[in-house]
Amino acid sequence: MTEKRLRNISSHCNYNETFMSYDQLRQPNALKELLQLFRQTGIPLEKQIVLEGGFGTGAYIGHLRRHVQEIYGVEGSDEGFAQALQKMKHAANVHLQVGNILSLTFSVHCFDAYTVNQVLHHLDTEPGFPNLNVFLKESRRVLKPGGILTINTSSQEQLDPYSGVFWNYKYIAGAVRAIAARHIPIHDLISRLEKFQFVDIQTTIPSGKIFNERFYHDPSFALEPVFQTGDSVYCFLSQKDMKAAEDRLRSDLQNGSVFEEMARAAGRAAEIGEGIIVSARTPE
Ligand SMILES: C[S@@+](CC[C@H](N)C(=O)[O-])C[C@H]1O[C@@H](n2cnc3c(N)ncnc32)[C@H](O)[C@@H]1O
């Protein structure tokens, strides 16, 4: 009997494995801010038709669906889709599909708001970010005139392994540099949005946190497989690099210096946030 291969679309990570522990590690960090941004369309939230691209296990859709009329989702991994479907099987206003956000099946001008959360860095492997253009063209096509696109991502400052906002990145600096290279710098993202004639371009720092609370208090969490498989940055580490990173963290746990790093990262996160939403609207 042949086993069915699970679909996975990320350029660097097998999300069918990552999603086995994702919900134990991550939380949606920008719910309040996204709803605020959707309101900028002038359409009452409860009348809005919304799309989420790359919805993962459905953490955002599970909340947003309670505020909007209908929400559609397109996700590239079978495992994410299956988990989200299971959670939302009784939600009549949720419509999920497996698909590619670079080639949406919707017709023109369907949505009041289109949101992607921590997805952009999965689209491109080339430094010129060519797939970002495809994504923006598709976004323009499916959004209604005056509709809003919200891109929840991370800045180079936030991702910096030594001066950024995640304390564990110091121990896996090589992998962090690799994933940072997949993140288009925010000023370049803004220029792309301008090139595609989006208007009202804004940046918003979400007030929420990306990881489960335990991450901020218990550094031994980062030594556990549930943590390491749940964050795509670890997909860039070889087994040898992983072992070296764990050894460094164990040593800093013993001498207590990891707690200084955690305090530094928390201070930095309070200054610049853990993520950034770049939003833009289509002309009326
Ligand atoms: C870091 S996860 C974020 C999941 C979810 N948005 C969240 O914040 O919980 C990135 C997600 O993007 C999805 N993805 C990446 N490229 C995609 C594409 N071209 N089309 C659809 N989904 C994609 C992955 O399968 C994965 O679920």
What can you see in these coordinates?
The protein has a domain at 15-159 and 173-211 and 273-281: Vaccinia Virus protein VP39 (Rossmann fold). The protein contains twelve helices and seven strands. The chain has helices spanning 15-18, 22-25, 31-39, 59-64, 78-87, 130-142, 156-159, 173-180, 186-195, 225-228, 239-255, 257-272; strands at 49-53, 70-75, 94-98, 111-117, 143-153, 199-204, 276-281. It has a seven-stranded mixed sheet with strand order 3-2-1-4-5-7-6, sandwiched between helices. Strand 1 (49-53), helix 4 and strand 2 form a beta-alpha-beta unit. The chain is globular and about 60 Å long. It starts with 14 loop residues before the first helix and ends with a strand. S-adenosylmethionine (SAM) binds next to helix 4 and strand 2.
Task: Write a short abstract of this structure.
The chain is α/β, with parallel strands linked by helices. Helix content is 37%, strand content 16%. It has a seven-stranded mixed sheet, with helices on both faces.
Look up the CATH topology of the domain at 15-159 and 173-211 and 273-281.
Answer: Rossmann fold
Q: Quick one: biggest sheet?
A: 7 strands, mixed
Distance between the termini: 54 Å
The averaged pLDDT comes out at 95
What is the helix/strand order?
HHHEHEHEEHEHHHEHHHE
Strand content: 15-25%
Strand order of the largest sheet: 3-2-1-4-5-7-6
Global structural class: alpha/beta
Radius of gyration (CA) equals 19 Å
Tell me the total number of β-strands: 7
* Ligand types: S-adenosylmethionine
Helical content band: 25-40%
Q: Which superfamily, in CATH terms, is the homologous superfamily of the domain at 15-159 and 173-211 and 273-281?
A: Vaccinia Virus protein VP39
CATH class of the domain at 15-159 and 173-211 and 273-281: Alpha Beta
CATH architecture grouping of the domain at 15-159 and 173-211 and 273-281: 3-Layer(aba) Sandwich
Task: Label the overall shape.
Answer: globular
Total number of helical segments? 12
Poorly predicted runs are: none
